[in-house]
Design goal:
The complex is a heterodimer of chains A (457) and B (248). Chain A is of the alpha+beta class. Chain A has helices at residues 2-6, 17-23, 44-57, 109-118, 135-140, 148-151, 186-190, 224-237, 248-258, 283-296, 309-320, 322-326, 343-357, 386-406, 431-444, and strands spanning 13-14, 37-39, 61-64, 81-84, 91-95, 100-104, 158-165, 170-173, 198-206, 214-221, 240-247, 270-277, 300-305, 332-337, 362-367, 373-379. Chain B has 248 residues and is of the alpha/beta class. In chain B, the strands form 2 sheets. In chain B, strands 9-8-7-10-6-1-4-5-12 form a 9-stranded mixed β-sheet, sandwiched between helices. Classes of the chains: A alpha+beta (457), B alpha/beta (248). The interface between A and B is medium-sized, with 28 and 21 residues. Bound molecules: flavin-adenine dinucleotide. Flavin-adenine dinucleotide (FAD) binds next to strand 3, helix 5, strand 9 and helix 12 of chain A.
């Protein structure tokens, strides 16, 4: 391998042990990083040249973004060469008339958001890892996040892509057009492809107008059954931009992690951060009425409301810091979704299943419940080894996925399949679907060199 | 004892302030307005003093147009007992504000008047001190810790050299610094209760003050744009650059 890397054309490369570990994994901790090297292309031509070289030398490549992925998509544990896009982070163009921004794939989403704000727009897809996630990585995982309720997923904002396929071809997909029905929309295939079809090297995102002032409620619920009816009520009465829920365990982990005490007086089993349009402070009045209604129904037991921008941010922290707060416990993440109408029954059955099957593990619940999306995090007891824990969780997941199948849901709402859910894909996709996916993969990546072994069993 | 806390309505701390295109002031249309953060800290401290049993009543006061009632309601929802709204369309400077507050102090006879050390809109840092002088009572400004006993307040102040603790006889004027406390969130049920709490609207002439117009703004200018930075390759280049600019 070493000699092979020596034949790489004039690109910055590292084989430093620290780098191999750093660039060889994402946020998951279940696979040992073991790439043969890390290479840092600086242009689309560099990437195309790399792919050509990889085909000649039969070297598998792992496209690598901000490595915040939660399914092992960017993990290189089998001697692959990691291709980090982090040096390709320039702004290509911000067009005010088009309301769009074109960037190289390695620009972070945080930076995309800032550039948008500076130009009087907003890039509305947002999640806790936006400061590290890259444009390319977020497209390759079709990231969702905390405002899908109003703004949809990354897919809804991608207007154009430049990609280098596994065959080494450079394609311009959709060229920033809003309307383009001339044949198959290949751009859509790259969105959510988790780096298995080729490299995204440049992206054009549509931009939204800046949002009006928002206010935030933190509500405490009486029980699990109360959440969805309360959501329905809030949604009718307020112009919601987010409805994010979490449980008492999440709140406790964040409190420990940040050293802050709970902002809400009553301890409740579940909470939700509710964000809504409040352009002149008058929507608070309506929020209050809804709150009174929800209290009368017995759904909500306590609640607080932001009075300033700093409080908006502070309240969001209680939801946004959860992933980071539980990371030390090597969580096994299930990222489930069902149609919103199915959430109440699904939740109730899931809750019973978990009680019965996970007695020795702590389970932390949070997620984008307004989108029918639930993050179920099983925490590793300190005494367990990572391997044993992973195996145990995998086994238990079968039953969770069985329930997902029964409710016609998905076992990966937004985190993708990667390595983590690969062997379970058939639980939510039919055999014919998987076979078609294989053929699509083959068409773009004939030698199976771009992120091999991910998504498809 | 009664504590009087002042609440000024200001453009929210997290909002990027923009000057109106005609230079007549700062854009406030559709802009989030909040309680001046230092005033919020002052109110939090007053509420804690009351909750400890060292005060019986917390009264919040604001000077301004009708919309300051929004901030007064927030103060009531945080836990204040009563609110006073001194009505004026103008935005008085510190001396005028201190004169108005003195009238309220004469009416209310509080043991402590608690203000923010400054308001984040004009950053004057004067009103508390001026009020103490007009009232002829002690002042303890920049408080980061407050303890009460035997009609005295022991106040730890944030000063340039570090911390200084002084004792003042009450009644006195106190002003809050950032580290004094972390203000509480407003509970939704408290907003409901706050609606039933008294909010008195007081006209300037009721206080024997003719008008609060004490200045005229002729022009507003945003600060000059900073020239962008420049990344140099070596220390040598830096030395050359500095020499060229005549800085070395
Ligand atoms: C604290 C935290 C909170 C999160 N919250 C959310 C959330 O709310 N919603 C959500 O959807 N996700 C969430 N995530 C997951 C994660 O942030 C997303 O999956 C993110 O979009 C991945 O971007 P990245 O640049 O880090 O990609 P990486 O992790 O580096 O890679 C992800 C996948 O994309 C591929 N890839 C990367 N770059 C390219 C490229 N240029 N071309 C082709 N393929 C590429 C990789 O091979 C890999 O398969 C969260 C993660 C963390 C750590």
């Amino acid at each position: 391998m070493e000699e092979r890397i020596d034949t790489l054309p004039r690109l910055p490369v590292s084989t430093d042990t620290g780098d191999l570990e750093h660039y060889g994994r994402d946020w998951t901790r279940f696979w040992k990083p073991a790439p043969c090297g890390v290479v840092f292309p600086e242009s689309t031509d560099d990437v195309a040249e790399l792919v050509g070289w990889a085909r000649k030398t039969k070297t598998p490549l792992v496209p690598s973004g901000g490595r915040t992925g939660l399914s092992g998509g960017a993990v290189a544990s089998r001697n692959e060469l990691v291709v980090s896009l982090e040096r390709m982070r320039s702004l290509v163009e911000l067009d005010e008339a088009d309301a769009s921004i074109t960037v190289q794939a390695g620009m972070t989403i945080g930076e995309v958001q800032r550039r948008a704000v500076d130009a009087g727009f907003c890039y509305p897809v947002d999640w806790a890892a936006a400061e590290s996630s890259q444009a390319g990585g977020s497209i390759a995982t079709n990231a969702g996040g905390i405002r899908v309720l109003r703004y949809g997923m990354t897919r809804d904002w991608v207007r154009g892509l430049e990609v280098v396929t596994g065959a080494g071809e450079v394609l311009e997909l959709n060229r920033g057009l809003i309307k383009n029905n001339a044949g198959y929309d290949l751009r859509q295939l790259f969105i959510g492809s988790e780096g298995t079809l080729g490299f995204i090297t440049r992206a054009t995102f549509g931009l939204a107008p800046p949002p009006v002032q928002q206010s935030v409620l933190l509500l405490g619920f009486a029980d699990l059954e109360a959440i969805m009816p309360a959501f329905a009520l809030l949604r009718r009465q307020l112009s919601l931009s987010a409805f994010e829920f979490f449980d008492q365990a999440s709140l406790e982990h964040v409190a420990t992690h940040t050293g802050q005490s709970s902002p809400i007086e009553t301890e409740c089993p579940f909470y939700a951060v509710v964000e809504f349009d409040d352009p002149d402070g008058s929507a608070q009045e309506r929020a209050l009425e809804v709150f009174e209604g929800a209290v009368e129904e017995g759904w909500v037991t306590d609640g607080i409301i932001s009075q300033s921008e700093s409080q908006v941010q502070e309240l969001w922290q209680w939801r946004e810091a959860i992933s980071e707060a539980i990371a030390v416990h090597t969580p096994y993440k299930n990222d489930l979704s069902v149609r919103i109408s199915r959430v109440p029954t699904f939740l109730a059955e899931l809750d019973r299943l978990v009680e019965a099957k996970y007695p020795e593990f702590q389970v932390v619940w949070f997620g984008h419940i307004g989108d029918g999306n639930l993050h179920m995090n099983v925490l590793k007891p300190e005494s367990w080894s990572v391997e044993d824990f992973h195996t145990a969780c995998n086994g238990l997941s079968e039953q969770v996925f069985e329930l997902v199948r029964k409710h016609e849901g998905s076992l990966s709402a937004e985190h993708g399949v990667g390595l983590l859910k690969r062997d379970h894909l058939a639980m939510c996709r039919s055999e014919s679907e998987i076979e078609l996916m294989r053929r699509i993969k083959q068409a773009f990546d004939p030698d199976n060199l771009i992120n091999p072994g991910k998504i498809l069993p | 004892m009664k504590i009087l806390v002042t609440l000024k309505r200001v453009v929210d701390y997290n909002v990027r302030v923009r000057v109106k295109s005609d230079g007549s002031g700062v854009e406030t249309d559709g802009v989030k307005m909040s309680i001046n953060p230092f005033d919020e800290i002052a109110l939090e401290e007053a509420l804690r003093i009351k909750e400890r049993g060292d005060a019986e009543e917390v009264v919040v006061a604001s000077i301004g147009a009708a919309d300051v009632q929004q901030q007064l309601r927030t103060g009531l929802a945080m836990g204040a007992d009563r609110a006073l709204h001194v009505e004026t369309e103008s935005a008085p400077q510190p001396l005028t504000a201190a004169r108005i507050l003195l009238k309220l102090v004469e009416r209310e006879e509080p043991g402590i008047v608690f203000l923010g050390k400054q308001a984040i809109d004009d950053d004057c840092n004067q009103t508390g001190q001026m009020l103490a002088a007009l009232w002829d009572r002690p002042q303890a400004t920049f408080a980061s810790k407050v303890e009460l006993s035997d009609g005295k307040a022991s106040v730890t102040r944030e000063v340039d050299a570090g911390l200084e603790t002084i004792q003042v006889d009450l009644p006195a004027v106190l002003t809050s610094d950032l580290r004094l406390n972390e203000p509480r969130f407003v509970k939704l049920p408290e907003i409901m209760k706050a609606k039933r709490k008294p909010l008195d609207i007081i006209a300037l002439d009721e206080l024997g003050i003719e008008d609060a117009v004490d200045h005229q703004i002729s022009d507003f200018q945003p600060p000059p744009k900073r020239a962008g930075g420049k990344i140099l390759e070596s220390a040598g280049e830096l030395v050359d650059e500095l020499k060229n600019k005549g800085l070395l």
